[in-house]
Specification:
The structure holds two protein chains of two kinds. Chain A is an alpha+beta fold. Chain A is 42% helix and 22% strand. Chain A is globular, with a radius of gyration of 17 Å. By secondary structure, chain B is of the alpha+beta class. Chain B contains two helices and three strands, in the order αβββα. Chain B has a three-stranded antiparallel β-sheet with strand order 1-2-3, with helices on one face. The longest helix of chain B is centred in the last third of the chain and has 35 residues. The chains are: A alpha+beta, B alpha+beta. The interface between A and B is medium-sized, with 24 and 29 residues.
Chain lengths: 221, 105
């Protein structure tokens, strides 16, 4: 592991020791690192950036409240920073990672950030997270189990939100999708799961995904 | 399919985003470091008992402040954190240099 990957592992260790890692799903480019480590054979993860995103699977958890900011700063050498306007708290670790905790947008959505009461911090809500949250798998990073979306859901989600992303992010996402799909197709049986998952999506979402696949000349299944 | 020029533009946009992230990181580390104590903890052994002193400089003078054992423990941890974060901010500065060179900010 390089320095950044070690800091990533230390972050997992900290959340695991506090007892809250199980409440999160690792999303974003670091999920690809988890696939590389423990799920997809011959898969080389896309470039890992300094942003490390954890999606809180249930806003009402953890039931036992902790002061996450204080625990991470005092015991695990994280640096916390709270935005004075939004109240959202982000964390920095090892001078190399920016860690953000997120939740799925509820109902019609909210302009205000969400209060994760169990963690004692305000977090940002993101739309269209159901596809990821409904398809969790567990990957092992050294001795730690971390929940990530299945690579099938990860790829479909990136295609689904592609049109709403900034142009430069769109290209990066497409690059990820192509690599993840290639790796999925190398594992017997995985394509059928991709098909089942795609077929289970609402027609509007299927259409959005097919449109991006056509434009980008991606053979989904 | 991703081809040459597009690949370069993806990398450039990633680096620009990383640059902004480093700026946020450096600011947060600077604020945190400023909130942590400077100096060091010195131990003096007198008749089989260890006494702790917080030694730091202020206005050109060296200050020695006696600490109770539990105070010394807390302060030592905070001073260690400060030193750790100072090292980490150096590594942030190194990363700044690399990204600046790559995107010519």
């Amino acid at each position: 592991m390089n320095k950044q990957q070690e800091v990533f592992y230390e972050t997992l260790q900290a959340l695991n020791q506090i007892g809250i890692l199980k409440h999160f799903m690792l999303i974003g480019s670091w999920a690809e690192f988890a696939y590389e480590q423990d799920y997809l054979r011959n898969f080389e993860a896309n470039l890992q950036t300094r942003d490390l995103d954890f999606l809180l699977r249930n806003l009402a958890l953890p039931k036992e409240k902790i002061n996450l900011k204080q625990v991470l700063e005092d015991n695990y050498d994280f640096v916390a920073s709270t935005d004075p306007i939004t109240g959202i708290t982000k964390f920095f670790k090892g001078g190399t990672l920016e860690i953000e905790f997120l939740v799925r947008e509820l109902g019609a959505g909210s302009i205000e950030p969400y209060h994760a009461r169990g963690l004692g911090i305000k977090v940002e809500g993101l739309r269209n997270m159901e596809l990821l949250l409904d398809n969790p798998i567990s990957c092992r990073i050294k001795d730690i189990e971390v929940i990530v979306p299945s690579p099938h859901a990860y790829a479909l989600h990136k295609l689904l939100i592609n049109k709403r992303r900034k142009p430069e992010k769109r290209s990066k996402d497409i690059r990820s999708v192509v690599k993840v799909l290639e790796a999925i197709k190398q594992i017997p049986g995985e394509v059928s799961f991709l098909r089942v998952l795609f077929d289970s999506l609402p027609p509007k979402q299927k259409k959005a995904i097919e449109l991006v696949c056509d434009e980008q000349k991606i053979e989904l299944i | 399919m991703i081809i040459g020029g597009e690949k370069v533009s993806i990398i450039k946009s990633i680096l620009e985003e990383e640059y902004e992230r480093l700026e946020r990181m450096k600011k947060a580390y600077s604020v945190k470091i400023a909130s942590l104590p400077k100096g060091s903890i010195q131990e003096k052994k007198i008749r089989n008992h260890v006494y702790y002193y917080w030694v730091y400089r202020e206005g050109g003078q060296t200050i020695n402040k006696y600490l109770e054992d539990d105070e010394a423990l807390i302060l030592r941890r905070k001073i260690e954190q400060r030193k750790k974060f100072e090292k980490e901010i150096q590594s942030i500065d190194e990363d700044f240099k690399i990204i600046r060179r790559a995107i010519r900010v």
